[in-house]
Amino acid sequence: MPEKNLVRDSVLSAIGNTPVVRLRKMVTAGMADVLVKLEYYNPTGSYKDRMALAMIEGAEARGELRAGMRVVEWTGGSTGSSLAMVCAIKGYRFTPISSDGFSDEKLRTMRLFGGDLEIFTAEGGKLVPELYQRMKRRAEELAEEPGTFYTNQFNNTDAIRAYMGIGRELVEQVGDGLTAFCGGVGTGGMIVGVSRALKEAGSKARIVALEPAGSPVLTTGKGGAHRVEGIAAGFRPPHLKDGDFDEVRTVEEGAAREMARRLAKEEGIFAGTSSGLNVTAALELARELGQGSTVATVAVDTGFKYLAGDLYRE
């Protein structure tokens, strides 16, 4: 007879505890091991499920979110999809503020879960700092309306608590042998959460924050246009504090996109551009650190969110 505790009470209970795999073909002799945590195993295919659930349940616990209220957030799509799913299950209305510069799959997913989506136009399909600011201002405007809870992902510390789960799971899965961890910076919650969880466990792993070379706000203070969805909003996120990371590196967007395609064909890892960016940097670190070391990163979301665009178009 199967154990009863293997049956989850809800889709929300299926968030987290994602697998870790070792890259086999991309790592050559003399390089460190590279481990990729497959966050697309979460219900909506993204690690943003962790953050969405934590922000909603944190607000409920504090009495900031109650039955009959509306939830609002500005989003590149993955956070919006995750919040739309959580709100659908819990019975809250949800208004995501997004843009047609993000993948059509993400926009359709938010609507599918019942989100009352508002769209801002991205000129030429480019994600620029001004677009993010327009979306942010609209979310703040709606947040002033009665009966509204603004999740405010860039400032909500429940996000950091949620992403600490990735770090704790890595400790359980990998042990204390992790040499470095790298990841792209969107809200900053993931890299900070993982860093704090690893430090809490006594890990000495080097923490490397990543951003696209086309929008190097962390390294130069100046954002720019790019198409790596989910990261690099054109400002340094408040979550990202000195001491939570050791260095920042930039990755060329073209290299990230090519890596996403290579991951699918060579390793069977089907993920988006930000995942390609993460693995590009992880392989660079693996070459520098050499045999005997271990580098970890995350596959942020599933490649199925990008099939309508040009990332996987032959």
The CATH class of the largest domain is identified as Alpha Beta
Residue stretches low in confidence (pLDDT < 50, at least 5 long) are none
Overall tally of structural domains: 2
Strand content: 15-25%
Summarize the main sheet. 6 strands, mixed
Order of helices and strands: EEHEHEHEHEHEHEHEHHE
What is the share of helical residues? Answer: 25-40%
Total strand segments: 10
Q: What is the global morphology?
A: globular
Q: Please, could you describe this protein's structure?
A:
- By secondary structure, the chain is α/β, with parallel strands linked by helices.
- It has 2 domains: 4-41 and 163-306, Rossmann fold, CATH 3.40.50.1100; 48-150, Rossmann fold (3-Layer(aba) Sandwich).
- The chain has 9 helices and 10 strands.
- It is globular and about 60 Å long.
- The N and C termini lie far apart (48 Å).
- The model has no long low-confidence stretch (mean pLDDT 93).
Layout of strands and helices, then pairs:
Blueprint: E1 20-22, E2 33-38, H1 48-62, E3 70-74, H2 78-90, E4 93-99, H3 104-112, E5 118-120, H4 129-143, E6 148-150, H5 158-174, E7 180-184, H6 189-200, E8 206-212, H7 217-220, E9 247-251, H8 253-267, H9 273-289, E10 294-299
Parallel strand pairs: 2-10, 3-4, 3-6, 4-5, 7-8, 7-10, 8-9
Antiparallel strand pairs: 1-2
